[in-house]
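Weekly sync, protein design subgroup
Attendees: M.S., D.O., the rotation student, P.L. (late)

Item 1: inverse folding check
M.S. brought a backbone from last month's batch and wanted to see whether the design step gives back something sensible before we order anything. D.O. pointed out we never logged the input encoding, so this time it goes straight into the notes. Structure tokens as presented (306 positions):
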């Protein structure tokens, strides 16, 4: 598609013009929408509004506002990155949304999109035992969105955000500071549980680990190539990391604790491998799949078979 700036700077005037042009570009180039939006209109509106420093929910009247020449150049640069480079929009804007909360993101972390948000909104009921939540672990935290959202839900809880990637830990710390939670939310570099102390167990462990199997990884749209491979693929069946979590989590959970893990399409592989393990698969009313919960007691009771 021709993104020649000289002619477009003269021919396009309003936000509406650029939104329409962006939509045409998205359709022509067959872009994939899976990082915050699911259609060309929403993606185009967000791209243009972000480029001119307007909120995503700006009043509709703003669509007819004319842009300055410098604003036009910035919109076209955003559009070039999205269309020519296939870069996901949150990496262009530096921000993604999760549970109505804004998180700083870049290509050091995957873009937040976990359906675990639905469980956080329900306080993990009815699976989490009643009573106060004192300690939470967000394993494979990435940007820290799941752990931070959980900390804002359980306002008295201490929350550890753990990731093997030092780059991800740095991004998570940025988001912890953004929400002024440094007094009780801590980002830790660790290969799963390696740097953690089992004598200080967690009431809740939540994890969105790498879970894409080799076949799905090979066929993913170009947009996903911008995300860190370490955070996506997990062996031939997508379960290399999840198996480790299942084997070790029981040691780090309180006696009445709960483990929550997202495995996406690798759900089928997991059920085939552990038919006796009493995993409870959550029905996600707002969409998504592959999230299971299991209690600490059930993990320990089946430790020999994991």
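Designed sequence read out in the meeting:
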């Amino acid at each position: 598609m021709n993104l020649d700036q000289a002619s477009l700077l003269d021919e396009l005037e309003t936000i509406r013009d650029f939104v329409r042009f962006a939509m045409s570009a998205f359709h022509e180039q067959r872009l994939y929408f899976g990082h915050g939006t699911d259609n060309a209109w929403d993606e185009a509106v967000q791209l243009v509004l972000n480029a001119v420093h307007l909120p995503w929910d700006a009043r509709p009247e703003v669509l007819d506002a004319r842009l300055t020449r410098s604003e036009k150049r910035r919109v076209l640069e955003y559009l070039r990155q999205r269309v020519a480079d296939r870069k996901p929009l949150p990496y262009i804007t530096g921000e993604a949304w999760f549970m109505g909360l804004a998180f700083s993101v870049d290509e050091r972390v995957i873009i937040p999109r976990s359906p675990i948000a639905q469980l956080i909104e329900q306080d993990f009921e009815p699976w989490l035992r009643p009573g106060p939540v004192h300690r939470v672990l967000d394993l494979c935290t990435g940007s820290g969105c799941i752990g931070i959202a959980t900390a804002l839900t359980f306002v008295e809880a201490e929350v550890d955000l753990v990731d093997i990637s030092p780059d991800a830990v740095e991004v998570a710390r940025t988001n912890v500071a953004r929400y002024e939670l440094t007094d009780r939310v801590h980002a830790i570099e660790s290969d799963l549980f390696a740097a953690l102390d089992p004598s200080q167990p967690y009431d809740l462990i939540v994890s969105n680990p790498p879970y894409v199997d080799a076949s799905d990884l090979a066929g993913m749209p170009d947009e996903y190539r911008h995300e860190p491979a370490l955070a996506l693929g997990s062996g031939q069946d997508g379960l290399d990391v999840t198996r480790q979590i299942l084997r070790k989590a029981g040691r780090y959970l309180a006696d009445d604790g709960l483990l929550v893990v997202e495995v996406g399409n690798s759900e089928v592989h997991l059920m085939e491998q552990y038919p006796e393990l009493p995993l409870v698969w959550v029905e996600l009313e707002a969409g998504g799949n592959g999230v299971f919960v299991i209690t600490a007691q059930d993990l320990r009771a089946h430790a020999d078979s994991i």
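Discussion: The domain at 98-305 is CATH 3.40.50.150 (Rossmann fold). The mean pLDDT is 95.
Action: P.L. to compare against the previous round before Friday.
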